[in-house]
Amino acid sequence: MYFVVVAIVYLSIIHNLIVPSSTARSIESPQYTVVYTESDFEVRLYKECSWMSALVQGTTSFENSTKDGFHRLYQYIHGANLNSTKIPLSAPVLTSIINASSSHGLDYYVMIYQSPKYERASLQPLPELNLQLNKWKSHCIAIRKFSGFAKDDNIDKEVESLRNSLNKHLSSNNMSSNGTVPITVDKNSSYTIAQYNSSRHLTGRLNEVWINVVLGFTAEGCLPYQEE
Ligand SMILES: *[C@@H]1O[C@H](CO)[C@@H](O)[C@H](O)[C@H]1NC(C)=O
Ligand SMILES: *[C@@H]1O[C@H](CO)[C@@H](O)[C@H](O)[C@H]1NC(C)=O
Ligand SMILES: *[C@@H]1O[C@H](CO)[C@@H](O)[C@H](O)[C@H]1NC(C)=O
Ligand SMILES: *[C@@H]1O[C@H](CO)[C@@H](O)[C@H](O)[C@H]1NC(C)=O
Ligand SMILES: *[C@@H]1O[C@H](CO)[C@@H](O)[C@H](O)[C@H]1NC(C)=O
Ligand SMILES: *[C@@H]1O[C@H](CO)[C@@H](O)[C@H](O)[C@H]1NC(C)=O
Ligand SMILES: *[C@@H]1O[C@H](CO)[C@@H](O)[C@H](O)[C@H]1NC(C)=O
């Protein structure tokens, strides 16, 4: 019985990563403004926002950790919370990959946006799901878009491309009038993969690499980002 339930939940995850039908109500997403645009990346200022987050450790696979974390989040929004309340799925689904310490490999945080309405409802996840609410202060993020499926064998290349763009930009550009360095990025080489579409969509897919911008763009409202 247990396995049947797990299998059904799992298939639902595969087929409903994001409910895409045109009749579906609009999907909630965190709010941002674009503060800088280049041909191959942009910088967005995200407002303060909250993410329900599942930590996954002990694997080196982005795909496996995303499936594991999303499975727990999927149960939460389908009623595995102390109020047994269903929550509409938001977009995008994030996987943050952080090299927090060299001892136990990488930490993967799989996250879904929690809109203020559902945050106010204080829907505590069932403890066995081991989820945390992660609150982000308003901050700036450098973003590169890519299409297709986000997979173990292509995300590194996309992350590298964004880092190269930012480095190139650093050495060749000069946005602040007083000559300060315009962009520096997150320590610990951490980055995030954002996925917007259900896996049943084989074409027209949107994914992004996000890297926190910790300095620069002060004129546009980006403040240095402090890790909490
Ligand atoms: C990902 O999960 C699959 C299925 O459980 C497993 O065969 C594979 O070895 C895992 N990959 C990594 C890199 O852990
Ligand atoms: C960055 O790494 C240090 C140790 O190297 C760790 O203490 C810190 O928590 C890490 N930051 C994040 C955001 O993981
Ligand atoms: C994590 O950081 C440590 C120390 O900086 C480094 O030795 C290790 O190779 C990194 N691990 C990965 C998977 O990037
Ligand atoms: C959910 O339960 C918590 C207590 O566990 C309560 O504070 C909150 O008001 C409830 N939310 C809703 C929407 O019923
Ligand atoms: C930055 O701008 C100043 C004045 O506009 C210029 O003198 C300087 O060479 C520029 N630096 C770079 C790295 O482009
Ligand atoms: C450069 O200008 C920014 C605001 O545009 C300011 O925050 C920063 O302190 C200035 N740096 C120097 C060295 O004056
Ligand atoms: C994938 O998601 C993006 C962002 O929400 C959307 O613009 C695009 O139309 C979606 N693709 C498909 C095939 O639904």
Automatic annotation (TrEMBL):
Instruction: Tell me where on the tree of life, at the top rank, the source sits.
Output: Eukaryota
Which residues does UniProt assign to the signal peptide? Answer: 1-24
User: Has keyword Transmembrane helix?
Assistant: no
Keywords attached to this Swiss-Prot or TrEMBL record, sorted alphabetically, are: Signal
Note the InterPro entries from the entry.
Answer: Reg_factor_effector_dom_sf, SOUL_heme-bd
Q: Which Gene3D superfamilies match?
A: Regulatory factor, effector binding domain
Q: What family does the entry list?
A: Belongs to the HEBP family.
Q: What is this protein called?
A: SOUL heme-binding protein
What lineage is on file?
Eukaryota, Viridiplantae, Streptophyta, Embryophyta, Tracheophyta
